[in-house]
Design a protein that fits this description.
The complex is a heterodimer of chains A (about 750) and B (about 110). With about 750 residues, chain A is of the alpha/beta class. Chain A contains 28 helices and 27 strands. In chain A, strands 6-5-18-17-16-7-8 form a 7-stranded mixed beta sheet, with helices on one face. The longest helix of chain A has 19 residues. Chain B is α+β, with helices and mostly antiparallel strands. Chain B is about 30% helix and about 30% strand. The chains are: A alpha/beta (about 750), B alpha+beta (about 110).
Chain lengths: ~750, ~110
């Protein structure tokens, strides 16, 4: 970039160029921003027109960042509260020294009395914390227990782990040209003919760092959309095909598409022969998975399945973006496996306009390099919760199987946990757990809990004893890598523009605590040293001057020996090929081939319960106005979406006497939530969609109200530990419910 | 003399409302004022396969075409931040030509 990274305007306003990440949350999209600071205050955020990917474009969340930073409820100082006051607004400001001493004493006491594994660190999704959580837990606290508490680890983990096992690469993403400085004009790049958006809403969610609106850029260049989603969202109405499937039946649909593509000989023989393993077994498995079979299960007409399978197979290069719907499904690993087969047998693997995959780069260390896992003694590592029961999950993620953490908290089996750390996780609000009241009660058994966050939230209010003030992305130096480094289209510097109160960045807090808790194993002294270690061949200073770094791109890396660590052609799986028949799944006792199973709570699997709860409940679609439970207190964003919305088909609403704007009680055998009705013909008559992430920062913070945390808590309706064989996948997007007018 | 204008192509407006907020930031408007406002047509069904659902961003009489920004060589705030890049600024005649050249279907040119 031509411009300096920092400039001062005539009136003294300091303008800092940066790449946005979090907090406040979003995935690591790294949108180019210019932060205007006057008299020590963030006064304005603008898009950076020089950023090669976002080119000045920004969503409402960054445009309202001053409202977030300058909000009167922002946590600006460390605070403590007596353990018996959990749930009460009885916080007392303390110094950083006192806060760090309290934490150090409790961590050391737990380590010495019960062992370091009695400490558990909870991390949420999307924020910078995701990149540092294991470094923090393993390298500083000394515990192997990092817990992303959503039942079945139902976000990103299932897809990335299944990809590692089946494809032997980083995350497969749409080739949207964002790796090239000249993006869509790059010679040799091609637009995808079709993009299948499968259970994914990239415009609102910018999934995992993928700039969602690049889909629109591609559509303007002629790319057509095939949308697979129980809701027809806006982009679905612009799609050439929309398959409105029954929630949770993705595996059946994908298998039927494979049945058509293989049965009609529409696959890429050359690719299949040279680069895949187990094609014949896959062909045999899907032989009976006819479109007619799938129509019965998925509600999608057999003819339409056939037509879409043919269109997709005959229009290489095309791409598939699979979404959270694959993770939030007990049968999701199999759905994902079948979708990966669709990606590869059609010749779309790592070709221009197809599926891009990650690649080693000399300027970047792999994500795991700073995790500090290796410094834990074997004995401690083996005590990670879930390591014995679900090694397929824990071995790749290096984190606990979350359902078993709730079990351990409740029962003390395999051992009692004593100290907790909420690192950017508001898990009790419907974001990252099932059965939130059980989690609340279980967490409160811990001797001591500390938290690091930007705002008081229901989880901290209910459970924590010490809270540390966390810097936003405008208040600390950092780096942002799309897909957290698993498939990087660019790396951007996060440049500190100002300080607020006594807030510290994640890295600064790690440095403070490392000094006290593990100085011998912590080689870094400044945030810049940590970032330089993360960057490998590139320094933070250099990155900051460059503006962004876009790694080199090669297509067909499997042919060039650029994927396997040994430099041989192929992919990083046991057979060296993409495993349509997964030898890894087999080694874990799972079926090596894709199969379909009914969601555990559906009208088909639970006909008796369905008499009382006749509708299918799907949850979790995002809006532009928030990131999961974040941003609810930002006035300009709250005005965009003031209330939690449950979408109901007008005919269904009529049947239940519900009108637009009525409060609706959504109920099932596990719990209930209240949301406001929005009637839309875009949802099937038998399905309702309820938003997640709702709490009410303006309401009474104390228990029992807890910022209204239980009023619209859709995760109250989700079961505990209804997960797949490998420890993944809970059906947050496909359960059953009833609806009625709320009081 | 050229008359400058805003072109809004709503084939691809995704309804993100970045324009509303960027404009309010730029002009210092209150929460109940808009220099540009996103309205909605639909969703309603055309036939078994087709739906009508458009977001339409409409400048209001508060719009100044970002005179000050433009004088400094920057884009108007709505045009710069529009996630779908469907708002463009320039001489009205050029914008008409762009609509024709690119075959944009649903477009409006606002002479402010």
């Amino acid at each position: 970039m031509d411009q300096e990274w920092r400039t001062v305007l005539e009136d003294g306003t300091c303008v800092t160029r940066s790449c946005a990440w979090s907090p406040p949350g979003d995935h690591p999209v790294g949108c180019g921003v210019r932060l205007f600071v006057k008299d020590g205050k963030l006064v304005k955020v603008e898009g950076d027109p020089d950023h090669p990917v976002t080119k000045g474009r920004l969503c409402p969340r960054c445009l309202t960042l001053p409202e977030y930073l300058n909000h009167p409820d922002r946590i600006l100082y460390p605070m403590k509260r007596n353990r018996e006051d959990r749930g009460k607004d009885a916080w007392e400001r303390i110094s950083w020294d006192e806060a760090l001493d309290l934490i150090t004493d409790e961590v050391v006491r737990a380590r010495e009395t019960y062992g370091a594994e009695s400490i558990v660190e909870f991390t949420g999704t999307g924020r910078q914390a995701v990149m540092y959580c294991m470094m923090f837990a393993n390298g500083i606290l000394g515990t192997p227990n990092v817990c992303y508490s959503q039942s079945g680890y139902s976000c990103y983990g299932p897809r990335t782990v299944a990809t590692a096992y089946v494809m032997g690469v980083g995350y497969p993403e749409i080739d949207n040209a964002c790796r090239f400085p000249d993006t869509y004009d790059h010679p040799g790049w091609q637009r995808p003919n079709y993009i299948i958006l499968w259970g994914k809403a990239p415009l609102e969610s910018n999934p995992d760092g993928f700039f969602g609106h690049s889909i629109i850029d591609l559509m303007k260049r002629g790319t057509k959309i095939i949308s697979i989603d129980p809701r027809i969202n806006w982009i679905g109405t612009k799609a050439e095909y929309h398959l409105q499937l029954r929630p949770g039946t993705d595996a059946a649909l994908a298998m039927a598409m494979l049945n058509v593509i293989i049965g009609e000989d529409l696959y890429d023989h050359d690719f299949v022969e040279n680069w895949t393993y187990g094609f014949d077994e896959l062909a045999e498995r899907v032989k009976d998975a006819t479109p007619e079979w799938a129509e019965e299960i998925t509600w999608v007409k057999a003819d339409k399945i056939r037509e879409v399978a043919r269109i997709y197979a005959k229009n290489t290069p095309s791409s598939i973006a699979w979404g959270l719907a694959i993770d939030q499904n007990k049968n999701g690993v199999q759905a994902g496996h079948a979708i990966m087969a669709l990606m590869v047998i059609t010749g779309n693997f790592d070709v221009p306009g197809g599926i891009s995959v990650g690649m080693r780069d000399n300027n970047l260390e792999p994500l795991q390099s700073l995790n500090r896992w290796e410094i834990l003694p074997d004995e401690t590592r083996n005590k990670m919760i879930g390591k014995q029961e679900y090694p397929a999950l824990t071995n790749v993620l290096g984190q606990c199987q979350p359902d078993l953490v709730l079990d351990a908290l409740e029962t003390g089996d395999p051992y009692q946990l004593h100290v907790g750390f909420f690192e950017s996780s508001n898990l009790l609000t419907p974001t990252a757990c099932a059965q939130p009241k059980r989690w609340r009660d279980a967490l409160r058994k811990l001797d001591f809990i500390f938290a690091l966050d930007t705002f008081m939230n229901p989880t901290i209010m209910a459970c924590a004893d010490v809270v540390l003030p966390l810097a936003s992305y405008a208040e600390g130096d950092g780096v942002v890598l799309t897909h957290y480094g698993l498939n990087v289209s660019f790396v951007g510097p996060i440049n500190k523009a100002l300080s607020m109160g006594e807030c510290k960045s994640e890295i600064e807090v790690m440095l403070d605590l490392a000094k006290r808790l593990n100085p011998d194993e912590w080689p870094w002294k400044t945030p810049e040293e940590v970032l330089n270690a993360k960057l490998g061949g590139l320094t933070f200073e250099k990155l900051r001057e460059m503006g962004v770094y876009q790694p080199q791109v090669e297509y067909k890396k499997h042919e060039k020996g650029l994927i396997r660590p040994d430099g041989q052609p192929g992919v990083n799986t046991p057979t060296g090929k993409i495993e349509l028949y997964s030898t890894v799944f087999e080694s874990f006792g799972e079926d090596p081939l894709p199969y379909y199973t009914e969601p555990p709570y559906s009208p088909v699997s639970q006909p008796e319960l369905a008499k009382e709860f006749p509708l299918i409940l799907t949850t979790g679609a995002r809006t532009f106005a928030s990131f999961h439970s974040e941003h609810r207190q930002v006035p300009s964003l709250r005005r965009l979406v003031p209330d939690p919305i449950v979408e109901i088909n007008p005919e269904t609403a009529d049947e239940y006497g519900i009108k637009e704007g009525d409060w609706v009680l959504i109920k099932n055998m596990f719990g209930e939530a209240r949301e406001k009705a929005h009637l839309t013909p875009l949802i099937n008559k038998n399905v309702v969609h309820a938003q997640h992430g709702w709490w009410y920062p303006e309401e009474d913070p104390e228990e029992p109200n807890l910022f209204g945390n239980w009023k619209s808590n859709v995760n109250s309706l989700m079961p505990h530990k209804q997960i797949g064989h490998l420890g993944f996948g809970s059906n947050y997007k496909s359960t059953i419910c009833s609806i009625e007018l709320a009081d | 003399m050229h008359q400058n204008a805003l072109l809004v192509n709503y084939d691809y407006c995704t309804g993100c409302k970045s324009c509303e907020i960027a404009c309010r930031n730029e002009l210092g408007l209150s929460a109940d004022q808009w220099g540009i406002k996103v309205t909605e047509v639909g969703p309603f069904q055309i036939d078994n396969e087709k739906w009508e659902w458009d977001y339409v961003a409409v400048p209001t009489q508060l719009c100044t075409l970002c005179k000050n920004r433009v004088a400094e060589g920057a884009k108007p705030a709505c045009a710069l931040h529009c996630l779908a890049s469907v708002i463009e600024y320039g001489p009205a005649e050029d914008l008409v030509k762009r609509v024709k050249d690119r075959g944009l279907k649903k477009s409006a040119i606002y002479l402010i």
